[in-house]
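Weekly modeling sync, notes
Attendees: S.R. (lead), two postdocs, one rotation student

Agenda item 3: backlog of single-chain predictions. S.R. asked that every request posted to the team notebook include the full sequence so nobody has to chase files. The rotation student volunteered to paste the first one in as an example of the format we agreed on. Action items at the bottom.

Example entry:
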Amino acid sequence: MRVPFASEGSEGSEGSEGSEGSEGSEGSEGSEGSRVSGITAYAGERISALLANALLTTHGELTRGYYGTIPNADTTTGQLPSDVAMARWSRKVRAQLYTFELLSGVTFTPGVASAILKAGAANIVTLPSPDYEKTTAKLNAALQAVVDKGALRADRMGEILTQITVPYSYFAMLLNLQPGRHRFTYELMSTALILSGMAVMQFKHNFRVRRPADHSPLIQPVILTPNHGCYPAGHASQCNMLAAVLAALVGNDLGAELPGQLQLLADRIGENRVVAGVHFEEDITAGATLGQALAVRFLAQAQAGAAANPKTPLGWLWASASSEWP
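Predicted structure, as returned to the notebook:
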C-alpha cells in the first residue's frame, strides 16, 4: 500500500507502510479461494457465509463428546508482561499507543510573528513567520528563486514524482532496509513521520501561507499543489527528522558515512519540492529546523522509555528496532 506523506493529508495510515505487508492479509487476495475462505474473510474484512457455515460444522464435529468442564485449559490469569503484550498487539494499536505517548504534554502556542511547540515548560522549537511574507521585494525574490530552480526539473523529475509518497525506498537504499529483517525499523520510521506530520500541520495552519503558484502563473508546478499551507515544508521536516533518528538508531553499524549521507538525502528531497514548484526555499529551511528539533524530542522519549522498567510503548519500539542492528 502506498500512502502520501503525513504532511500531504494522509497521516492516518503511516503505521502499516513498509513493514511486513498489510496486517491479517494473505498474499493471494485476488484468488477466488482467498475471497471466501482466506484470512480476510476469517477476520471479518470480507463477509463469507460459506466460511462461517464451514467453521460451524467443523467446530461441531471437532468438539463432539466434550461436555461439562473444559479439560486441560490454561488457567493462567493476570496481566500479560508489557513486552509480550506489545508484540501481540496489531501495528494499528501500537501506532495509537506511540502517538498518545509522543503527544502527551505537547502544546502549541500560535502567533503571527512566530509560533512555539512545547513539551511541558520546555520549548521544542520556535519558528518565525517567513521572511518572504514581509515585503513585496522579498516575495518577488523568493518567487524568482522558485522559477530559477525549475531549470532542474528535467534532471529531477523521476525523484519528484517518486517522492510525493513517503520515500522509504530512498532511505532503504542507504540503509539496505529489508522488510523481514527491519520490520521494527520501518515501524519506528512511520512513528516518527506521524509526529512530524502532526507538528508541521500546526505550524502550516498557524501561518497559513500561500503557495508559489498562488502568486504567479509562471511557476507552473509539475505536480498537484498540496491543499494546505506552504510554510514550513512537510517533506523537509519529515526527512530531516528521519535522518537524525536513523543516524542515532544505526550508529556506525554501516560505517561513518551514514549520517552525512542521510543528511544529503534529506536536503535533496527538500530541494526537489522547490524544483517541483510547490515550495519556497525558506519553507525547506524552516522544515529542516522543525524536523531536527522534533528528532531531539523523539530520541529523548524513545531512549528514556527503553531504559524504563517496564518499557513505555515507544521505548519498546526503540529497543525492538535497535535489536535489528548489530
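Discussion: group reviewed the output briefly. The two ends are 29 Å apart (CA to CA).
Action items: rotation student to repeat for the remaining queue; S.R. to check formatting next week.
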